[in-house]
């Protein structure tokens, strides 16, 4: 069977199908909304293959595929390849097409790399609608370029509104290695993705993190999302953090959790949203019967108040800080703008 790819008329690409299926696809081709709904269920590899079917498929699939980009400098082709010279050569058709598609990109998932991004220049001009930048690495500590040396050339160009961090060290709000210590001025919201069954370790005073006034620039909101795949999967931490490779005695991980969370609240003056507090295992938290979410909120507020008082802060300032802490249910959070923040597979049981 010969495959008709790149046909000028999309119907020519479907001539190999039996008549019934052919008529079905013809009806899809005449309704872009239906076609878009159908291809939205395809995986990324299949979507990429659909780009070569026809011009109509390209126009429908291209924006969908490039809306959420994954950039890896280790595996497969890089969607940012070829854009560094766009301004120098406007006659290259493939580059112009890529530039057109990159205008649809609203979220970018950037993985570990080691100075492989140096050739990329003017990236911010090629991604004018970027809203979400997610930096994740599992199971290694967050790292962009080399821990020592200049800041990541790619990171400093990007101008996201929302920065998503999936750190190996739980509840530790620092930027990845190679990103420096100061948040990009465009960032208004930072989302810290917390994963279950990771090691949590007591940390010193968090005043030197990007939450400090000198490092956070225009940051307004911090979201701490305790990710579970569904309501039936409980969230817990272990202790100590395995990456340390040390054998020392620490308190119960839940005590460390409360202390770290209250320190974050004491340092950051903006709004803090604690997402999926109801997802914690009741026994792990040491709670009996009752509303887990409500008890978590009550405990966090109580510990934050004590931390603030220990620092000599009291009265109205403590009350204002407590008002800025919100506990949000996972399903409520998923009704908002979470595209590019978590993968659908990470929260599939909630959808």
Radius of gyration: 24 Å
Largest sheet: 8 strands, parallel
Shape: globular
Helix proportion: 25-40%
Low-confidence stretches: 1-8, 13-17, 242-248
Please identify the structural class as seen in this structure. alpha/beta
What's the number of extended β-strand segments? Answer: 8
**So how many helices?**
11
The N- to C-terminal Cα distance equals: 40 Å
Mean pLDDT: 77
Arrangement of strands in the largest sheet: 1-2-3-4-5-6-7-8
Q: Beta-strand level of the residues, as a percent range?
A: 5-15%
Element-by-element helix/strand order: HHHHEHEHEEEEHEHHHEH
InterPro entries: F-box-like_dom_sf
Description of the molecule:
With 351 residues, the protein is of the alpha/beta class. It has a domain of 196 residues. 30% of the residues lie in helices and 11% in strands. Strands 1-2-3-4-5-6-7-8 form an eight-stranded parallel β-sheet. Strand 6, helix 7 and strand 7 form a beta-alpha-beta unit. The longest helix has 19 residues. The chain is globular and about 65 Å long.
Write the layout of secondary structure elements.
Layout: H1 19-29, H2 32-39, H3 44-50, H4 55-67, E1 68-71, H5 93-102, E2 107-110, H6 123-126, E3 132-136, E4 162-166, E5 189-194, E6 221-226, H7 253-267, E7 271-275, H8 282-285, H9 292-310, H10 316-323, E8 325-328, H11 330-334
Helix pairs in contact: 3-4, 7-9
């Amino acid at each position: 069977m010969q495959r008709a790819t790149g046909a000028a008329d999309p119907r020519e690409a479907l001539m190999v199908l039996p008549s019934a299926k052919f008529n079905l696809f013809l009806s899809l081709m005449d309704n872009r909304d239906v076609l878009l709904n159908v291809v939205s269920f395809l995986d990324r590899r299949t979507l990429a293959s659909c780009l070569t079917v026809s011009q109509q498929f390209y126009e429908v699939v291209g924006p969908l595929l490039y809306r959420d980009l994954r950039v890896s400098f280790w595996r497969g082709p890089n969607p940012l390849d070829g854009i560094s010279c766009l301004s120098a050569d406007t006659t290259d058709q493939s580059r112009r097409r890529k530039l057109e598609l990159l205008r649809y990109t609203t979220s970018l998932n950037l993985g570990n790399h080691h100075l492989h991004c140096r050739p990329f220049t003017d990236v911010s001009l090629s991604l004018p609608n970027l809203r979400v930048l997610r930096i994740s690495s599992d199971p290694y500590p967050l790292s962009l370029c080399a821990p020592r040396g200049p800041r990541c050339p790619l990171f400093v160009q990007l101008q996201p509104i929302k920065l998503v961090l999936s750190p190996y060290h739980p509840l530790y709000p620092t930027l990845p290695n190679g990103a420096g210590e100061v948040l990009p001025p465009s960032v208004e919201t930072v989302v810290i993705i917390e994963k279950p069954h990771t090691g949590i370790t007591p940390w010193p005073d968090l005043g030197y993190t990007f939450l400090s006034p000198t490092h956070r620039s225009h940051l307004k909101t911090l979201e701490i999302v305790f990710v579970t795949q569904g309501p039936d999967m409980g969230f817990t931490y272990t202790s100590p953090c395995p990456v340390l490779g040390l054998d020392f005695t620490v308190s119960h991980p839940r005590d460390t959790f409360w202390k770290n969370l209250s320190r974050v609240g004491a340092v950051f003056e903006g709004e803090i949203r604690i997402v999926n507090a109801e997802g914690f295992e009741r026994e792990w938290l040491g709670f009996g019967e009752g509303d887990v979410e409500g008890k978590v909120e009550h405990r966090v507020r109580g510990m934050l108040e004590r931390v603030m008082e220990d620092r000599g802060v009291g009265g109205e300032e403590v009350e204002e800080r407590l008002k800025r802490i919100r506990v949000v249910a996972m399903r409520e959070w998923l009704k908002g703008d979470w595209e590019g923040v978590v993968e659908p597979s990470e929260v599939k049981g909630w959808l």
